[in-house]
Design a protein that fits this description.
2 domains, single chain, 8 helices, five-stranded parallel β-sheet, 40% helix, alpha/beta, Rossmann fold, Arc Repressor Mutant, subunit A, disordered C terminus
Length: 238
């Protein structure tokens, strides 16, 4: 039985989420503020954390930052704000995904299942992929530009790998949603845009670029010729 830690200072939301998660066979523990969340995290060792941003004593951003210092538990953030900046900051701090309030509890459960499925399934087999100076190793779930390793969250890695499988080919937002998030994902294509923005930052100016094809989707293209490439380690002497 998977354990989910729900952190929210609104008791009705905690109980609503608890009700729907327990119906699906999850064990649910709860905390009403940021400090209590960290105590409960150490006590219950959850498989996933549903974390509200607006918390007393310590906000959700700080809790997320501290959880990342302690481990790699998947984090689904809840926010009452619709601005992209909150989602972006949460993802940069290490959250795996986010849901905007008000939310459909069934949709939240589907999101929890999707995150756990991807974090618990062993890395898919496959040969390493190379796009320009970008190398992706699906088995190790590692990606690098030159000798610079990319620190990618799980969804960011899956998104980049999906684009790298067909470099230069335009993939629609709907296709990326289905490939990376799954057919049961209840979110909107805007989720793809937010994750693409993060992948672009991490690829940097010296790596392949994720191009927007207006009205359709995205494609991955190698860096232009003449772009500086990160230095490679010298070959070992024979």
């Amino acid at each position: 039985m998977k354990t989910v830690l729900v952190v929210d200072d609104e008791r009705n939301i905690v109980e609503l989420v608890r009700l729907y998660l327990e119906k699906e066979g999850f064990n649910v523990v709860a905390a009403g503020d940021g400090e209590a969340a960290l105590v409960q995290y150490e006590r219950s060792d959850p498989d996933l954390v549903v974390l509200d941003l607006m918390l007393p004593r310590m906000d959700g951003f700080e809790v997320c930052r501290e959880l990342r210092r302690r481990g790699d538990v998947p984090i689904l953030m809840l926010t009452a704000r619709s601005e992209d900046i909150d989602a972006i900051v949460g993802l940069e701090l290490g959250a795996d995904d986010y849901v905007t309030k008000p939310f459909n509890p069934r949709a939240l459960v589907a999101r929890v299942k999707a995150i756990l499925r991807r974090t618990n399934v062993a890395a898919k087999g496959g040969r390493p992929m190379q796009v320009g100076n970008l190398r992706i190793d699906p088995r190790r779930r590692e990606a690098s530009v030159g000798d610079r390793r990319l620190e990618l969250r799980a969804r960011e890695f899956d998104l980049l790998a999906a684009l790298a499988r067909d470099p230069g080919v335009v993939l629609s937002r709907d296709a990326l949603l289905e490939d990376v998030w799954g057919t049961d994902f209840p979110g909107e294509t805007r989720t793809v845009d937010v994750h693409v923005a993060e992948v672009r930052k991490k690829l940097g100016d010296d790596g392949p670029q994720v191009e927007t094809v207006r009205g359709i989707g995205y494609r991955l293209v190698p860096p232009p010729r003449g772009t500086a490439v990160a230095a490679q380690p010298p070959a070992a002497a024979e």
